[in-house]
Design brief:
The protein is of the alpha+beta class. It has helices spanning 5-15, 45-55, 57-62, and strands at 20-24, 30-36, 67-73. Helix 1 (5-15) crosses helix 2 (45-55).
Length: 76
């Protein structure tokens, strides 16, 4: 069961509607995402990434998404 980068972006966007989101990957299972959102300001990188992982949990649990490398930060 393959998943598209646009599907992952849509899942992340549900949790972070105002974020700048870039998702890359074309093998259907392994992706990299950069999420820049004001809500990350003052939070540790671990807390930021846990929040993003929560938005894609359903895709991970279903086995559609096997790997998501994350870069997260607050806007400059």
């Amino acid at each position: 069961m393959a998943i598209l980068a646009s599907d992952i972006e849509a899942l992340i966007r549900e949790g972070f509607p105002n974020a700048q989101i870039t998702v890359q990957g074309d093998d259907g299972q392994h992706f990299a995402a950069e999420v820049i959102d004001e809500s990350f300001r003052g939070k540790s990188r671990v807390a930021q990434q846990r929040a993003v992982n929560a938005t894609v949990k359903s895709a991970i649990d279903s086995g559609a998404l096997h790997a998501l490398a994350l870069t997260t930060k607050a806007p400059d």
